[in-house]
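Ops channel
N.P.: pipeline sanity check, posting one input/output pair.
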């Protein structure tokens, strides 16, 4: 009887040690993913802060393109109000599409394209987009690692019990943005 109690005690101790270790690892990975998303938020905020200046610059040269300018403004507003990862992804995809249409306007207005303020804003936005892409990669890597650990046996047995029962969502640029990026390579003209 004593042997059975000792074996049972050892098994319970091992389960507790593993459970604490699995929980601590999940918490660490969850925090890493949250920090990575906060980095994305910083880049998104910087991009959103540039948009009013960009719209005003374009308005001076292409004010009659009201629909495009209103679409950019509405998309920026929606992106600023989004709170969850899914909402932010959808809003940012809409904003990216609207900005693409706005930059396409510069092709039709050579004076706008040559404007130093417009060029500076475009360069700043391009820099932010590069930083945003890097932040997305880091976030998606953190999410992938969290999801993989959460699904591994025997962690999956404990994950739901301690509040980590579902996967985290990736920050995906979406099919429309991916298609637009792949189908519209930059053109170099001399």
């Amino acid at each position: 009887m004593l042997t059975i109690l000792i074996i049972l005690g050892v098994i319970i101790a091992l389960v507790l040690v593993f459970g604490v270790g699995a929980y601590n690892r999940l918490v660490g990975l969850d925090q890493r993913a949250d920090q990575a998303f906060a980095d994305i938020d910083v880049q998104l905020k910087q991009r959103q802060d540039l948009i009013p200046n960009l719209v005003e610059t374009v308005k001076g040269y292409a004010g009659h393109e009201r629909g495009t300018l209103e679409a950019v403004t509405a998309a920026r507003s929606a992106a600023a109000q989004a709170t969850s990862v899914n909402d932010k992804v959808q809003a940012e995809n809409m904003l990216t599409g609207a900005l693409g249409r706005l930059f396409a306007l510069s092709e039709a207005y050579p004076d706008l394209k040559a404007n130093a303020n417009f060029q500076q804003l475009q360069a700043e936005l391009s820099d932010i987009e590069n930083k945003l892409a890097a932040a997305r990669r880091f976030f998606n890597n953190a999410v992938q690692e969290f999801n993989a650990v959460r699904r591994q046996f025997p962690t999956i047995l404990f994950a739901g019990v301690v509040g980590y029962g579902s996967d985290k969502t990736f920050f995906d640029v979406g099919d429309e943005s991916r298609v637009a990026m792949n189908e519209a390579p930059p053109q170099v003209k001399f």
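N.P.: looks fine end to end. Confidence is low (pLDDT under 50) at residues 176-190.
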